[in-house]
Specification:
By secondary structure, this protein is mainly alpha-helical. It has a single domain, classed as Four Helix Bundle (Hemerythrin (Met), subunit A), CATH 1.20.120. About 55% of the residues lie in helices and about 0% in strands. The chain is globular.
Length: about 180
């Protein structure tokens, strides 16, 4: 039996397009999310879990009826103090994500990885996350109050310098700059 080649119209054009597209595609390890997306997807919800643990009613929170389907981390299968531990470690690990070279800000500017203030603020957030983790392990609300305060301060320092820009300062287009 002889083998025949099957040639479909457009195959050559598709192959040329595919190889050209592959040449323009970003590297596989390039950041997929911008800084705001990492903040909104990891840091914001994780910080809120830590902040929730400060309140007296945190100790009385019960799991949802089906904790495996819960969208509330505190009421999920890994809820309560374990949720606070996990959220604290998420903050710690996210400090590595926000410093991945190539990550962009919503302004289109690169994350200011070389700026000494940014580097310090990231280190402060990491330290606050580790403090929150230890506080969550202790299940002591006095310790979580102190840790949550340090998380809030670390966030506000960076936001006040690099995020919160008034219109006369360039607004959102000036984010990630001093």
């Amino acid at each position: 039996m002889s083998m025949r080649r099957l040639f479909l119209p457009g195959t050559a054009a598709f192959l040329m397009f595919a190889s050209a597209t592959a040449a323009q595609a970003p590297p596989a390890n390039a950041p997929a999310a911008n800084l705001a997306q990492v903040m909104r997807g990891i840091l914001f919800p994780s910080s809120n879990v830590i902040f929730a643990a400060q309140h007296d009613e945190f100790a009385t929170v019960r799991p949802d009826a089906d904790p495996s389907l819960s969208t509330d981390p505190i009421k999920s299968v890994y809820g309560g103090w374990e949720a606070v531990e996990n959220a604290s470690l998420a903050l710690v690990e996210a400090t590595r994500l926000i410093t991945v070279p190539g990550r962009q800000c919503t302004s289109g500017k690169p994350v200011p990885l070389q700026d000494p203030d940014f580097v310090k603020f990231v280190a402060d957030l990491r330290a606050a996350g580790l403090l929150a983790y230890k506080a969550a392990q202790s299940k002591d609300q006095d310790q979580i109050l102190d840790a949550a305060d340090k998380v809030g301060v670390a966030c506000s320092h960076c936001h006040s310098m690099f995020r919160e820009k008034l219109p006369e300062q360039g607004g959102e287009a000036s984010r990630c700059t001093k």
